[in-house]
Amino acid sequence: MTDTGHGTGHGTGTGEGAGSDRPVRPEDLARLERRWQREREARLEAEQLAETGLRRLWEAKNDLDRRVEERTAELLRTRAVAEASERAKTRFLVDLAHQVRTPLQTILSAIELATPATPQDRDRLGLAATATVELRDLFTNLMRLAELEVNPSEPRWAQVDLRAFADDVVTRWRDRLLGRGLLLIPTADGRSPVDPDRLSQATDALLDNASRFADPGPVELHLVGEPDRVVLRVVDSGPGLAEDLLEAAFEPFTTFGGGRAGSGMGLALVRELAATAGGSATATSGRGDGAGTGLAVEVSFPRPPTTDPGTHGTISAGDGGSGDTVTGSAGTDHSATRTGDTS
User: Fold this and answer.
1) Which residues pair with 194 in a beta bridge?
2) Burial class of 282 by CB neighbour count within 10 A (0 to 12, 13 to 18, 19+)
3) Are the CB atoms for 153 and 197 separated by under 8 Å?
4) What is the pLDDT of residue 260?
5) What is the per-residue pLDDT for 177?
6) Are strands 280-285 and 217-226 parallel, antiparallel or unpaired?
7) What is the pTM assigned to this prediction?
8) Taking burial as the number of CB atoms within 10 A of a residue's CB, which of 78, 132, 174, 260 is the most buried?
9) Parallel, antiparallel, or unpaired for β 158-161 and 191-194?
10) DSSP state, 260?
11) DSSP element (H, E) containing 52
12) Checking phi first, is residue 297 left (phi over 0); if not, alpha (psi -120 to 50) or beta?
């Protein structure tokens, strides 16, 4: 049967359906062979390139892994050295504070026992006593802050009568605050589980801070037992701070001038006391323009995992709980804790 030319063959055509009855020429076969050879060489070259690329990629990955491991090990070594150095520095500060407090207390006792011969001598002794107390309290706060950083202790919770605690605070602080034109106004009620020593130190630090920087007027002390925490809040009548300075106020040795004395340790200690108990400390202020807008510091102490009243002692003014020795409201040497200056 004769081919009518409607076959479906394509390409060069090698027989039936090719659209042509001419025989395959040798040069066509040679051309096809060369084409096949070029494609084969191209495939081999591509495979070699792919293999080379994969090998280089794998080598680069291994090199990167090695560098990461080396860098990680170097960073770990550096961190270990830095942490050891920081611990050594903090231990030194603790030891230094311990060593300095004793002679300072001796000097203070000698000043208090001295008999002034003239009014000028009395004034000089008063200035010397004030400076000695300031220095002693600075080292006390420094020692406590360093101890919290080096060896933070677990909170020792007890059921605290917040109203009795506040009354004791007022008794201890009334005269000092009144001497600076400040009226302490407490608000507290109920009983809540909290670490009384931390609560007492934080309260004293905040009131000391207010006594240094607040303008004459009221100082509010709020103690609130909430379902999941105990909140200590102190609001003074001072100039406050600008918003961008509130966080910096909690850094050690941070002061903001203004002609008022302070070492910048008080709020740093307050935050560390809260943080090591799982709590927090924050500050809020008005415009910070010196117009008497006030500073409010709120300290949060979380409740313990178990709040069964039967598992905690009860502490009120002058009592001890959970086998702890308590002086005043929290077993703290309050003459040494009134040192919370900052900003």
Assistant:
1) 158
2) middle
3) no
4) 53
5) 92
6) unpaired
7) 0.59
8) 132
9) antiparallel
10) -
11) helix 26-113
12) beta
**What crossing angle do the helices spanning 119-150 and 26-113 adopt, rounded to 10°?**
150
Nearest alpha carbon to residue 269 among 144, 98, 97, 135: 144
Q: Is the pLDDT of residue 307 over 70?
A: no
At 49-94, the pLDDT tens digits run 888 888 888 888 888 998 999 999 999 988 888 877 777 776 776 6
Q: Is the dihedral of CA 149, 153, 159, 160 positive or negative?
A: negative
| Euclidean distance between CA atoms 254 and 267, whole angstroms | 9
Sequence-separated (6 or more) residues with CB below 8 Å from residue 210: 177, 182, 219, 234, 236, 238, 295
Chain Cα centroid distance, residue 340: 18
Q: Over range 31-40, report the average pLDDT.
A: 85
Residue 113 corresponds to which amino acid?
Answer: L
* pLDDT single digits (tens) 258-281: 545 556 778 888 998 999 899 999
**pLDDT band, residue 27 (cuts 50/70/90):** confident
Q: Which residue has the tokens 């390409």?
A: 11
Judge whether 257 and 296 are in contact, CB under 8 Å. no
Q: Name residue 7's amino acid.
A: G
Q: What number is the average pLDDT over the span 231-259?
A: 80
- According to DSSP, residue 157 is labeled -
Residue showing tokens 């109203």: 163
